[in-house]
Design brief:
Length: about 260
């Protein structure tokens, strides 16, 4: 059924990205439109997507917009996303509405799942916390602070499906503004992870749940720290967490 094929990822200024549960680039224009309307919204216009981009909405995935247009918002340019440019990477109005892309919906009243943070401190949670999160969710949180600051990440509560391989429900952390570079690690289970400190002023967190078994979710707090302060001398992203049995370490490289 069309209305059950997509998952919410990230939201800003009422705009959020949707992708099919079966993977990236699986929605026709009609399917993308139906998904947005089912949730009480509609496909975002180019202007709505650009307004979201201006406050930090960044997704490296092309999606349908209103009137059959396709594109994606880039805040921070990179060699593997956006052709090194910023702005809306615009593929134009597609003549073939059967092409398969993701979708950008607009609904200022949609359930929060992910977000973009620029404040010096913030607490964010899995959707519905302290109640259990839903199946088949994908949420992204982007943190972008002032240049020269670092991000001190602390886990206040943590309860995801227990899986020694972390292949079911998990949260991934990246020391970058996307989920392509700077992979720090993947966490699951109910053991509270150690604090993490970024090497720069940006971080990305990705939460994913599969089609069965849910748990209580998590609360995560971050604060901006000066590189020379004592609070920035904790666990760095380049270290691993051998004490946590449900942890997959990344091959970290400095940005």
């Amino acid at each position: 059924m069309v209305l059950m094929v997509a998952d919410c990822t990230e939201q800003a200024a009422g705009v959020y990205h949707r992708e099919a549960r079966s993977g990236k680039y699986k929605l026709t224009y009609a399917e993308a439109k139906a998904v947005c309307e089912y949730e009480g919204g509609h496909l975002a216009t180019y202007k709505q997507l650009e307004a979201a981009r201006k406050i930090g909405f960044h997704i490296c995935a092309a999606g349908w917009m209103a009137k059959g247009r396709v594109g994606y918002p880039i805040v921070k340019p990179g060699p593997n996303c956006g052709f090194g440019k910023t702005g809306i990477i615009d593929y134009g109005v597609r003549l073939n509405r059967s092409e398969r892309w993701d979708a950008y919906c607009y609904n200022p009243h949609a359930k929060e799942c992910g977000g973009v943070f620029t404040d010096p401190k913030q607490i964010f949670k899995t959707p519905g916390f302290p109640n259990e999160y839903d199946d088949n969710q994908i949420c992204y949180w982007h943190i972008r602070l002032k240049y020269g600051q670092r991000i001190h990440l602390s886990f206040l509560d943590f309860d995801l499906e227990d899986d020694s391989a972390c292949l079911a429900d998990y949260v991934e952390i990246y020391d970058s503004y996307d989920d392509v570079h700077g992979f720090v690690g993947r966490y699951c289970g109910d053991e509270l992870p150690e604090d993490i400190i970024s090497t720069g002023n940006v971080m990305t967190l990705k939460f994913l749940s599969d089609a069965s078994v849910t748990a209580g979710g998590f609360q995560i707090k971050y604060v901006a720290v000066d590189p020379l302060s004592k609070s920035s001398q904790g666990k760095n992203t380049s270290t691993t967490s051998p004490g946590n049995k449900n942890f997959l370490a990344g091959r970290f490289s400095h940005l």
